[in-house]
């Protein structure tokens, strides 16, 4: 007898070894056979495609291209429409994952990459662009800058290539600017120091530095002040200054630079020292402070009063309360310079600006009303 087996709607689970057995009174006979199932044929279809990317020189580039289909498709790669030798040095090709790797990218590796999956039923292609950038070069070279405090300062950092480069400025490790140009509208001493420019792209970061020196004009912390002394006396006229860099100081009398003499000398702290004063050294003394930022001047009058002789002495008077009174005092000196001061009976100096009843004119003391 003949018996047939019909399997409808075959599925993958039906694949394997099947058996057919025939049995009668004499025994059993078994025959084994293998059922193989072939998937329906279809054209290639991508399960992963290469992605465009931008990398720096020396970077690792990974391009993935996987496709399914029956029969399994073959994968081919092209660069700029030219077949790639997948066994070439510097490349790694893994067929099982469809991965093409450039182990260390160079500028010549930039271009358009395409992969094609092909079987008996057709082919599909996918493309990606690989851009390879070199490390930016900062040019022209940065130059040290000097600026006077209060003035504006602009620092510029240009790089090649310029596209795709992110630039920033740092001072003492702190970011102070996020553009190729850094502008300080009004510089201060704290703005001095070493500045770094960083130009970053996919290849890495290029760095260059410059030093900014901020100078400050001389400023008088203790300016000289007018003095009046008697001949033969001594006095110090201080002149203290600050500035960056530290100023040099000289003294000028009129238009002549002061030199050390027995009567006048300049100390290490720039103090003008007058010893055993002589009337011939009277005049306007100017302290001149100079540094790289500029020059500042401050002047003081030094008046030396010679020997004084009274020509008119104050006289005792009897005044009526509520009425006015006048007292005279006249004197001469060797150099004609006289400074006269009046005192109340209690030795308090008379100040006409503090007592509206009092006026002093050419040595004459007048009261509009006495108490």
Q: What is the overall silhouette?
A: rod-shaped
Q: So how many helices?
A: 0
Helix content: under 10%
What's the main sheet like? 6 strands, mixed
Q: Uncertain runs with pLDDT below 50, 5 residues or more? A: none
Mean pLDDT: 91
Number of strands: 35
Please state the structural category: mainly beta
**Strand residues, percent:** over 45%
Supply Rg.
51 Å
Spatial separation of the terminal alpha carbons: 165 Å
Properties at a glance:
371 residues; single chain
Description:
With about 375 residues, the chain is an all-beta fold. It contains no helices and 35 strands. It has strands at about 15-25, 25-35, 40-50, 55, 60-65, 65-70, 75-80, 80-85, 90-95, 100, 110-120, 120-135, 135-140, 145-150, 155, 160, 165-170, 175, 180-185, 195-200, 205-220, 225-230, 235, 240-245, 250-255, 255, 265, 270-275, 285-290, 295-305, 310, 325, 330-335, 360, 365. Strand 9 (about 90-95) and strand 10 (about 100) form a beta hairpin.
